[in-house]
Amino acid sequence: MSGNVQMAEPPSGIEAWQRSLPWWDVYFGAVLIATVAFAFKPGAIALLAAMAVWYVALGRRAIHGDHLFRMGLIYLVGATILFVPAVVIASGASFALFALSPQAHMALGFRRGTVATVILNFIPTIVLYLRTGEVRHTLPIAILATVLTTIIGYSIDRLINQSIELAESRAEVAQLSQEAERQRLGADLHDTIAQGLSSVVMLIQAADAALDRDPGEARCHLDLAARTARENLQELRAVLDALMPTEQDLPEALRRLALRFTEETRVSATVRVEGDPRALPVALEVVLIRAAQESLSNVRQHARASAVAVVLTYEEESVGLEVVDDGCGFKPSETFGGYGLQAMRSRLTQVGGEFAVDPAHPGTAVRVAVPA
What is the pLDDT of residues 50-91, one digit of tens each? Predict the structure, then answer.
């Protein structure tokens, strides 16, 4: 997996709810048509028609453009210039506020949009006051309309912000998934290539040391190195094929692993299965096999053991794996120092498993368990 994979940019708030915007267009159009019925005077109708054209020419871009403040402000100033004389000609034109108020919030954002809606909602009251000096009936309506449109504007702003947060959360989850996949792939490559090549190098060194003294033994080491390389290649192909182990059941895979370990190190390795074996999800089998590989690799490199036992235990709600050697043990401060053990713990955490390394008196016991 390339380290240069680029994540798609999270969509902006307006883009995230883009599919709902055509319905707003329908709503605005319906409001203007209804306003014509309330303000059926030629001058008012002409101004309302001009407002519709102005919305199509600039308003849609301002609203669909993720709070492009300058464009939104220009649109609302122009719409207000058309709205005021329409209200002067026919007071019923104030019905257009049902379109202009949400447009203000969508174009300017919640705070600026709230200021704009307050101004818009009080325009009919001011016009009526200049005409008659009376505001007793229109002022409460203006206040109520302002409160309602502010609530609607808050809902619109919250929807946009939630869309942004959802898009960012999805992008973050995708990034975390990518990082987890990188770590898992790196761990599996460590368990296949690194451990396999380590075995091959050790066997070739042993063959070189025995070449003059015992050519037969040297050939035996070389044959085992070749077989290890072939098996390592098979494991690598399995990793590249969706990180799957070779096609065999888990107990058999562990027995094969122990046999190869014994042939490589001359250290006795046995496998014991307790409980009734059952099929496990591939991901869990991979975790258990990799845990066994890493544990045996640590025995070979650090333990100086003469025997190691691998115990696979099937319980009702979990499957456990224990690798116990009779070697020199470990220092508590060094328990989690290596990359392999860290990778083992990371894999188990990802599947909800448990991991522990304990002294076995003598030796070391590595215990893992996965829910199954």
Answer: 999 998 888 888 876 655 678 888 988 999 899 989 888 988
For residue 273, the model assigns a pLDDT of 96
- For the chain, the structural domain boundaries read 13-168, 248-372
Residue with tokens 């707003």: 24
The 10s digit of each residue's pLDDT in 276-321 is 999 888 888 888 988 898 888 888 877 788 999 999 999 999 999 9
- Specify the fold of 248-372: Heat Shock Protein 90 (3.30.565)
Determine phi and psi for 145, rounding to 5 degrees: -65, -40
Taking a C-beta distance cutoff of 8 angstroms, is the pair 293, 191 a contact?
Answer: yes
Q: How far is residue 174's CA from residue 171's CA, in Å, rounded to a whole number?
A: 5
Residue 126 contacts residue 86 (beta carbons within 8 Å): no
Residue with tokens 């942004």: 164
CB neighbour list of residue 160: distance below 8 Å, 6 or more residues apart:
13, 14, 16, 17
Residue 303, judged by CB atoms within 10 A of its CB (0-12, 13-18, 19+), counts as buried
Rounded to the nearest integer, the mean pLDDT of the chain is 78
What is the 8-class DSSP label of residue 8?
A: P
The half-sphere exposure of 16 on its side-chain side, counting CA atoms within 13 A, is 21
Residue 7 has a pLDDT of: 36
DSSP 318: E
